[in-house]
Design goal:
- With about 130 residues, the chain is an alpha+beta fold.
- It has a single domain, classed as Ribosomal Protein S5, domain 2 (2-Layer Sandwich).
- About 30% of the residues lie in helices and about 25% in strands.
- It contains 5 helices and 5 strands, in the order ββββαααβαα.
- The chain has a 5-stranded mixed beta sheet.
- A hairpin with a 2-residue loop joins strand 3 and strand 4.
- The longest helix has 19 residues.
- The radius of gyration is 19 Å and the shape is elongated.
């Protein structure tokens, strides 16, 4: 039996990294072996955000997607998955790049948590100043 043909893309955000595989199929999305709705604990906002790249190019019902995601929290993972799916779509269909780029789905968000600095309470918070 020949292996299933797929296209893949990687994405990352904060401490989360995701790898998405696009297969011909009927629109099922699995994240770390669970259905997406179950993994995202039935949060409709996050589920809609994950499927944004597919919705932009009207390919929701044509591809099955399996995603492996590690690290970070749920919000960072969702953004990493979104970027991974976008990159996989562009690998399969280069003509979708301008559409996804205009929607801001092809850019990795570079914001990371700043480290705590010596003598401060957190990265930038200081002790309260006392004049007297």
């Amino acid at each position: 039996m020949p292996a299933k043909k797929y296209t893949y893309g990687n994405g990352s955000r904060k401490a989360a990294t995701a790898t998405a595989r696009l297969y011909k199929g009927k629109g099922e999305l699995t994240i770390n072996g669970k259905p997406a709705a179950e993994y995202l604990s039935n949060n409709k906002t996050l589920l809609a955000e994950v499927t944004d790249p597919l919705a932009m190019v009207q390919k929701q019902k044509e591809y099955d997607i399996t995603v492996l995601v590690k690290g970070g929290g749920l919000a960072g993972q969702v953004d990493a998955i979104k970027l991974a799916i976008s990159r996989a779509l562009v690998a399969e269909f280069p003509e979708f790049r301008p559409i996804l780029k205009k929607a801001g789905l092809m850019k990795r968000d570079p914001r990371e948590k700043e480290r705590k600095h010596y003598g401060l309470r957190s990265a930038r918070k200081r002790e309260q100043f006392s004049k007297r």
